[in-house]
Amino acid sequence: MFGRRAPLPVFPPGALLVGGAARDWLRGVPAKDFDWAVPDPAGAAQGLARVSGGAAFLLDAERGYWRVSAPGGVQHDLVPLPIDVTADLLRRDFTVNALGVWADGRVLDPAGGRADLRSRRLRMVSRENLRADPLRAWRAARFEGTLGFRLEAGTEAAVREVAVDLGAGRLSMPAWERVRDELHALLGSPDAARGVARLEELGLLALTVPELREGRGVAQGGFHHLDVFGHILEALHQLLARRPDAPLTLRWAALLHDVGKARTRAVDPVTGRVSFHGHERVGAELSAEILTRLKLLGDDVRRVSALVGAHMLPLPATEREARRFVHRRRELLPDLLSLMLADREAARGPSSSEASRRAYARGFERVLAALEEQPSAPPPLLGGQEIMALLAIPPGPRVGMAARALAEAAALGEVTTPDGARAFVRAWADGNSTS
């Protein structure tokens, strides 16, 4: 109907395939997440686990929900088959998800979802369904981006109404974890920048990452031809054009890299020149606050914050500076370079020139060459105990300072042997006396 259909999966006894997997089968798109309504969830889960070589486990004992995790990232969720299947489908969010497929290929379509699939139209089953779970407003924006559909006018109006009522407190905000998961699905799409712009158009960005909206209408000049908000979206677009496999943390860093600009904007009273001094530091702090609010893992929050805080570093002009750059930022590479390039490519204002772009490219080449030459940090030439004995000092911050100075010297090729390391540490101690 909409493309060459993939073969139907192996159905558990008496099962109905519902939701996204049914939708994707009709679209000819292979699925990895399957939702089943079955007479016996426990038995069906055990059977699927045996057939697939996966593992079955109980999700919700009270409601009888089961899950099977199968090889290849395939997941099956199984729930009891409702007495009234049609009524159950009509409680879903959008018509293209209110579909069911039986093992013989018969399709249940009580809301006209197949016609909407053909028209690539995203239409709510009902306004009441949308308001019953306001997270469905974010899901609408996500489906537009990931499925390539367009919201039907009445559904778009209802989504905007949900956003207004959430902002006014007439509806309750979904849990941040659920909002985060929708954002991650949206950011994971190739057209993530357009998805974020759509959140803004629908009134949902103000409820999610309002800090980004502070950049709307904030002109920059110089290397920039877009306001801060437009530049942020363009940087995300440029990143994904070059690194479609970019990890989620890097996508977040591109989205948030200039989030601190609106709060640091200053205008020179004499020249009228606009500046954003320290915006990377403020942006790093804001990024940590935003992502903590969205319940991201601590390691991810710290990485995004570090990338945002480092994105304005000057690129090295010499090979020695390139080795130092790699040594000091190794844990952020190569993602930091990808972020810096996306930022640069999104900026094409009056100060941008072919000569400046070539100079920037040469800096990148130096860093990449240094990273290729030394893909990992060299092993330490002296341990902490040796440094303490050499300098006759107890454990403390001074030992760490000496070790870090030695590690950088080794990374730069200035020290290559234990004897050279001992001489370096003595000289360092003489030049950094605490007396």
Automatic annotation (TrEMBL):
The keyword Metal-binding applies. Its cofactor is Mg(2+). PROSITE patterns: HD. InterPro entries: HD/PDEase_dom, HD_domain, HDIG_dom, NT_sf, PolA_pol_head_dom, PolyA_RNA-bd, tRNA_CCA-adding_enzyme. Keywords: Magnesium, Metal-binding, Nucleotide-binding, Nucleotidyltransferase, RNA-binding, Transferase, tRNA processing, tRNA-binding. Pfam families: HD, PolyA_pol, PolyA_pol_RNAbd. Belongs to the tRNA nucleotidyltransferase/poly(A) polymerase family. This is A-adding tRNA nucleotidyltransferase. It comes from Deinococcus caeni.
